């Protein structure tokens, strides 16, 4: 009687472990799919792949401009803010080009180097932009990214999804997939030895 209970408990444990392993594999595949349709296209579309040094030539704050809203966005997404324009000397080619914060900044408003998030407090936005401008004037030489193919003549300060960020994004689903496969393999090995011992 005790033997039957032990066998039943063992089978239930194996079933739960197998479900856990399959669930981990399924979740990791969903994460791979999500990363593949969200992060990977932004990474492959970016042409600013080469790193060089940039030296600030001028950093000016112009009058307020309207945030250029993307297609399909509502009118309420448009908001005024001071336009910071940073021009740098590109070490790789010696050209005078405009600097943008990220690839997204260029798409949102090509006239400004920095596009703040929407805020009801215009004083905070103005103070933040003035702080950024003073930092550029203080730290005049810094690494930046440019397009080695020459299709984009401007440069960006940082990439939205650098190679390290992409590898980090794939790290967790890879660990989950490996753990799920390991659990499934251990359950199958346990079942194999159980059948083998039963035959003996």
Automatic annotation (TrEMBL):
Gene this protein is translated from: Kcnmb1
Domain of life per record: Eukaryota
Membrane topology reported for the UniProt record: Multi-pass membrane protein
GO molecular function annotations of the record: calcium-activated potassium channel activity; potassium channel regulator activity
One GO biological process term: detection of calcium ion
PROSITE patterns in the cross-refs: PROKAR_LIPOPROTEIN
Location of the protein in the cell: Membrane
Family affiliation: Belongs to the KCNMB (TC 8.A.14.1) family. KCNMB1 subfamily.
Keywords noted in UniProt: Glycoprotein, Ion channel, Ion transport, Membrane, Transmembrane, Transmembrane helix, Transport
Membrane-spanning parts: 20-43, 166-187
Protein name: KCMB1 protein
Database matches in Pfam families: CaKB
A GO term from the CC aspect: voltage-gated potassium channel complex
């Amino acid at each position: 009687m005790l033997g039957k209970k032990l066998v039943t408990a063992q089978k239930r444990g194996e079933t739960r472990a197998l479900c856990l392993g399959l669930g981990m594999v399924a979740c990791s595949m969903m994460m791979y799919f999500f990363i593949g349709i969200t992060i990977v296209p932004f990474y492959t579309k970016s042409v600013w792949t080469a790193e060089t040094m940039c030296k600030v030539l001028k950093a000016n704050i112009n009058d307020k401009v309207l945030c250029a809203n993307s297609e399909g966005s509502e009118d309420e997404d448009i908001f005024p803010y001071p336009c910071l324009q940073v021009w740098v000397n590109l070490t790789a080619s010696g050209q005078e080009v405009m600097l943008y914060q990220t690839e997204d900044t260029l798409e949102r408003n090509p006239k400004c180097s920095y596009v703040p998030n929407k805020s009801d407090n215009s004083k905070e936005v103005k103070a933040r932009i003035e702080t950024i401008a003073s930092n550029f004037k203080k730290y005049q030489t810094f690494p930046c990214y440019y397009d080695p193919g020459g299709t984009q003549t401007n440069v960006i300060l940082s990439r939205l999804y650098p190679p390290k960020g992409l590898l980090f994004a794939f790290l967790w689903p890879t660990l989950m997939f490996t753990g799920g496969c390991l659990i499934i393999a251990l359950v199958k090995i346990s079942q194999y030895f159980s059948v083998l011992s039963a035959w003996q």
